[in-house]
C-alpha cells in the first residue's frame, strides 16, 4: 500500500519546474520593481523628473533630496529613536495584551466567553469617532503631548484578537490544558509555559502586523503631539513634505528666490522620505516571514 502510494505521489517534470521557477522569478521581480524605482527617483534631479518623468536610468542624478532631508541630522535621529522605542515597546505590549484577551475567550469552559467575544466584535463595527477619541485622551485622561497617547489607541486590534483566538482553539488541545491542571499548574503557568510557546507562529504574525501599525502611524501624532522634540519619524517626514510643498506653492517666495525654488526637491523628496521610512521594516521582515503565512492560515481554519 505504501509503495503504491509513493508511486502515485505528485511529481513535476524538469521542464514544468523550470517554467514555474521562471514565472515566480518574474513575479518576484515585478514586486521588487516599485521599490527599486522609488530608490532611483529619490536620487534623480528635479529637472530630469520634470522633463522625462520616472525612469529606471535617469539622465541626471542629484543628492539634493537627501541633503534637504539630513540637513537637521539630530532631529532625524531623535525621531527615529522615538519611533523605534514606540514600535518595540508598543508591539510587545500589544501582542501580550491581545494574547491574554484571546486565550480566555478561546476556552470553552470560560463562563463569560460569549460576552467578551461579542464585546470584541462590536468594537469592530462601531467606534466613537475622532472627536470623542480626542476628548477622552486629552481631557479625561490628560494624555495630550505624551507618548502614551501614541500607544493606547493601537494596543488592541479586534481582528487580530479573533485570529489569535481561532489559533488557540485549533492548536491548543483541551486535553493538554487539563493534564497541566492535574499536575497542579496554575492558569498563569499554563498560559506562559504551555500556550505561548506553542503559539509562536501566530505571536510572530501579530508582532509583524503590530510593528507595521506602530511604525507607520502618523495620525495619532497629528492629534496628540504638540512638541517638535516628540515627533516620531512618520509625522516628522509628513511635516517636512508639507513644508516643502508650501514653499513651492508660495508665489511670492518663488518670485524672490527663483534659483532656490527651482532646485527645491518635491517628488524626489517624497521618494527619499519613503526610502528612509521603509528601511527598518525591510530589515525585520525576513525574521518574521517564516511564521507569517503559517500564523494566518492556521488562525483562519475556523470562523
UniProtKB/TrEMBL annotation:
InterPro entries given in the database record: MetI-like (IPR000515), MetI-like_sf (IPR035906)
Domain of life: Bacteria
Compartment(s): Cell membrane
An example Gene Ontology biological process: transmembrane transport
A single GO cellular-component term on record: plasma membrane
Membrane spanning residue stretches: 20-46, 79-103, 115-137, 149-168, 190-215, 269-288
Residues of the ABC transmembrane type-1 domain: 80-288
Gene3D superfamilies (alphabetical): MetI-like (1.10.3720.10)
Membrane association type: Multi-pass membrane protein
UniProt keywords, alphabetically: Cell membrane, Membrane, Transmembrane, Transmembrane helix, Transport
Family: Belongs to the binding-protein-dependent transport system permease family.
Family matches, as PANTHER family: ABC TRANSPORTER PERMEASE PROTEIN MG189-RELATED-RELATED, POLYGALACTURONAN_RHAMNOGALACTURONAN TRANSPORT SYSTEM PERMEASE PROTEIN YTCP
Name listed for the protein in its UniProt record: Carbohydrate ABC transporter permease
